[in-house]
Each structure stands twice: as structure tokens, then as C-alpha cells.
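Need C-alpha cells for this chain, all 337 residues.
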Amino acid sequence: MVLSFTKSGIYCEAGDFYVDPWRPVERALITHGHADHARPGHGAYLATDAAAPVMRHRLGDIALDTIHFGEARQIGGAQVSFHPAGHVPGSAQIRVEVDGEVWVVSGDYKTTDDGFSEPFEPVKCHAFITECTFGLPVFSWTPQPKLVDEIHDWWAKCQAAGRPAVLGAYALGKAQRILSHLNPDQGPILTHGAIENTNAVLRAQGLHLPDTIYVTPETKIKDHPGALVLATPGGMGGPWMRRFPNASTAFASGWMALRGVRRRRAADRGFVMSDHADWEGLNTAIKDTGAERIFVTHGYTSQFARWLTEQGYDAGIVETEFEGESLDAPSEEEAAP
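Here are the C-alpha cells for all 337 residues:
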């Protein structure tokens, strides 16, 4: 096999490297900078030049080499290349070819162009290792133009009611995707520190984001009437939220497709969006690879592997330590079609 599955991660013997390993290894090829894929402790790292700044921000002074999208590189007996995954800026699928056989590791991905990350590109292969975080038919994302309108409409209603609008989104990727489509003329935009730190890294790369105001301990919401506040989901669950009394709260997550999750979060609004592929996106991506062998990693693995088998694929499940989108873990009853 081109790639094998070990206790440390996905391994290529021909090149003596791992892809997104979860235990320390000598050489790691990294799909993107989220913490469950880019971990500390490896001897050497290889990632796209667009993913590198966030990785350095998160992991510090690491031995990091970079590669351009589409550039082929020989590592031992394997030829590797990185291709856009559409998940977050710089995120990649990793193509590995050994003796004419091609395997692709998807990392995390989405197939719709969000206007911020590099758009997903299908890669032809013999075997495809894919996430399936949202591998059930119930998951279908709101089209982006409609999503942007919904967020602005909710924000305007909060302004009319004299309430701050606090929107929860992950600090890397989703927050910036939302921010890149906000109209700053509608009102001030405040950000949680974790989001603002990531904003600074991405702005330094040349990515355009509207001006934002970093929330500090001294920040008083009365000084920013009509504000929309971008917060981390963790920040919304703690004392950080005391700065925003009488706030209307919302979350942007794929899990907002499930009413039970939104109920548990006690959110006023739920925006159905994700930086992972929905059901249609997963199926389209797999079909476009032309692969006959499919390995599913994190998400609804048993359900999705069964579905793929019914469609004629040679599908199997791979146990990994990737996490996907973990705003809340829904029960099986909540996720049932």
C-alpha cells in the first residue's frame, strides 16, 4: 500500500513520512494549521506556504519547510504534491504517488468556494482518504449569499432592539470567512482575542479583512453601539461574555442543522455553515477523484462507509485522532434522518 495506518498516524513507507500524525514523528506533512492536524513535537514539517504563518503562530519555532500548491516534490521513493482543500486559507489535500499508484489524503475540506480560502480542487487517484464530519444527508449548508444576508439581517434586528449581536465561530477559518463578507458600514465589528490574533496573521499574508476592534478587559459595549461581536464558542461559554449584557447570541456551525444542538447552546440564532463538506460535497468530491478505494476517517464513519459500500465503492474505516467540527457532540437521535 502507498499509505498505511499506524498508531502514530498515516504513514508512507516509501518516503518515510507521516501525514497529519497525532504522535511525534521525524517527518510530518501537514494539511493545515488546525490543532488536531498540526501538532507540536515533530522533527520536521512540510506544509503549503499559505498555511505556514498560522502554523508558526500556533507552534512556535518549528523546523518548517514549505511547498506551493501543485508543486511536485520527491521524498525518497514517493512523489508528493499539495492541492487546495477549500477548508481554510492554505489548507491542502496531499497527493502521494509511489510506482504509479496514487493515494490522496483529504485533510479537512469543503467543495463550495467561500470567496476567502483557495477553492477546492478534485485530485484523481486510486485511493482517497476522506473526512466525513458531516456524513449524513441531514447536513446541507445554506448557500453563501443567503447566509451573508441572514447574518446582516440578524445584526440589523439586534441594532434595532439595542442589543449587541454576539456570533460564535472558530478562531481560524470560519471567523475570517464571515468577517470577509461583512459590511463594515453597518456598524463596528469587535473580535475575541484568539480571533484577532489569527486576523493579524492572515492580514500579514495579504488577505483582506475589514477593520476590527480587539475586545480587551477595558472594552465597554456602550462605547460601540450597534456592534457585531465575533467570539469563539469557548469564550461565549465563560466570563468573557459578561462584557456584553443583554446580548443576542448566535452560532455559525454545521451542527446548527440540528435543532437539539442549538437548543443546548441556548442560542437566539443558528447559522448553518461549516468549513467542512456537507453530504452533497462529500459525495461529489469522492466521485470526482475517480477512486475505487475510499477510507473514511473522522465523523459519521460507520454510516458513511456503509453508504459508500452500497454505492459500489470499496470503503473502509480508519481510526484517527482528528476531531472535525466539535461545537457540540450531538446524540445519535438528534442526528438521525
